[in-house]
């Protein structure tokens, strides 16, 4: 009888378990039944979890758009679009879609909101107004910092790779460059990633491990709640007293901020902290905002630089045309030495086209950036229930053939030079979104573009590059942030021009 009772109990549990699963899946499907997508995505979060872990959400979404149209489901309560006009409306002022749970993970373990996570529009606008002067360059003079670090990068490449005839991992060097720029601009600190060709505090190594975890937290609220619990944070949260990883850099940030708030004479220093302080940002807010600038800006900009570099050196036609434009500019004496100015770089049409096209083909930020509303919203005739996350698939948006033509998947900078005024406006209408739109325009846009334009020019003015392993030159993992690593190249110095 005991055996029979146990068998009956097991069967009952199995039946109730199956019934619960079926009902849950049905209720999940009914949340947004009018928006189609992969079946597993419509009934559970497992589809999105699988592709987040695999690191190919952008590719899976691209395939789903081709099958289901420009609005698809990636989870029971999550829809995404690759429609440019929808994306513009989502991020424009007055949009009824506010920042959703995707942004929660951008608190980066801090106890307060930063400019990326503030959901109240008035508070967000107020914080942006305080930060903008420090980001635009008007109060930070960051072109001088970029020039200084470009000189360090060129010197490092000559010293450690050309003179030693060694293979260089450009992915590593590009990250050191953007880290040195941002720590100089943000804190007026020179940590010396480039000068010593060293990953100080193992920061880059720690960041490479952290970004996939952040991606999971952005896409999956349950995982975020677990990892953001007091117990887990007490064990894993980076601390200012840490000797390695993010915590070590946070410690440097806290120390630098404290010195600025202790010494009023530092208010006139050309740094983000000084600018933030002058415009009413508190000490603790400065700590979080400067670290956000480094985390969000260093890897994304270095990835943009890596991808532009990779596209150029693996495309002989583009490589040749870009080198010719650079050589002609040098011979005509229209560019400064030793470092080109930003205005001079922006006057070189093919260089600008290369940067625009590389950013289009593989934008460094691919997060779904989910937004939501407390009310029903309508997207392309489809009614989206309250509290449904609505995101954008940036990779797919950049490959929309209706905007960029039948060759949208190809890297072809010439499209930006051949287009008539109307077509060019359509191109720029799409790619402008990669730096955000409306109230979400990237604060670091000017600095990132400066690093890209000046960095690419000086690299190809000074050196010739050839990729070491053409079969597998780069490892890419792309969801919220792209990780590009192992970009090994041989370097040869060009004759002085």
UniProtKB/TrEMBL annotation:
Highest taxon above the source species: Eukaryota
Protein name listed in UniProt: Uncharacterized protein
């Amino acid at each position: 009888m005991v055996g029979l009772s146990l068998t009956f109990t097991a069967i009952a549990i199995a039946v109730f378990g199956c019934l619960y699963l079926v009902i849950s899946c049905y209720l999940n499907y009914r949340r947004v039944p009018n928006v189609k997508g992969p079946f597993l995505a419509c009934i559970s979060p497992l589809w999105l979890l699988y592709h987040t872990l695999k690191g190919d959400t952008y590719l899976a979404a691209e395939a789903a758009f081709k099958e289901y149209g420009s609005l698809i489901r990636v989870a029971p309560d999550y829809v995404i679009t690759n429609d440019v006009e929808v994306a513009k409306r989502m991020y424009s002022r007055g949009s009824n879609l506010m920042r959703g749970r995707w942004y929660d993970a951008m608190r980066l373990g801090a106890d307060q909101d930063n400019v990326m996570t503030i959901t109240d529009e008035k508070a967000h606008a107020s914080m942006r107004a305080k930060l903008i002067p420090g980001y635009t360059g008007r109060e930070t003079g960051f072109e001088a910092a970029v020039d200084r670090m470009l000189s360090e990068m060129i010197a490092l490449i000559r010293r450690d790779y050309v003179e030693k005839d060694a293979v260089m991992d450009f992915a590593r060097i590009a990250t050191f460059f953007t880290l040195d720029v941002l720590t100089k601009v943000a804190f007026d600190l020179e940590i010396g990633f480039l000068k010593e060709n060293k990953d100080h505090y193992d920061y880059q190594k720690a960041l490479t491990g952290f970004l996939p975890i952040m991606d999971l937290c952005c896409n999956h609220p349950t995982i975020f709640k677990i990892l953001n619990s007091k117990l887990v944070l007490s064990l894993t949260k980076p601390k200012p007293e840490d000797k390695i990883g993010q915590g070590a850099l946070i410690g440097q940030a806290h120390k630098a901020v404290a010195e600025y708030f202790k010494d009023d004479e530092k208010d006139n220093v050309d740094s983000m902290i000084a600018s933030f302080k002058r415009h009413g940002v508190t000490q603790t807010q400065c700590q979080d905002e400067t670290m956000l600038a480094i985390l969000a800006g260093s890897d994304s900009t270095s990835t943009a630089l890596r991808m532009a570099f990779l596209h150029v050196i693996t495309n002989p036609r583009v490589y040749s045309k870009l080198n010719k434009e650079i050589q002609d500019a040098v011979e005509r004496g229209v560019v400064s030495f030793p470092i080109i100015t930003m205005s001079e770089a922006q006057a070189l049409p093919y260089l600008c086209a290369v940067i625009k096209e590389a950013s289009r083909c593989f934008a460094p930020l691919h997060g779904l950036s989910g937004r939501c509303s407390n009310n029903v919203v309508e997207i392309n005739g489809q009614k989206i229930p309250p509290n449904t996350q609505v995101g954008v698939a940036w990779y797919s948006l950049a490959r929309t053939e209706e905007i960029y033509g039948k060759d949208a998947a190809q890297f072809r900078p010439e499209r930006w030079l051949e287009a008539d005024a109307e077509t060019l406006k359509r191109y720029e209408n799409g790619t402008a979104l990669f730096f955000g739109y409306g109230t979400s325009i990237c604060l670091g846009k000017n600095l990132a573009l400066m690093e890209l334009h000046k960095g690419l020019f000086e690299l190809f003015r000074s050196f010739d590059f050839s990729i070491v392993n053409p079969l597998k030159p780069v490892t890419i993992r792309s969801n919220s942030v792209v990780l590009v690593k192992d970009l090994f190249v041989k370097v040869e110095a060009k004759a002085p021009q």
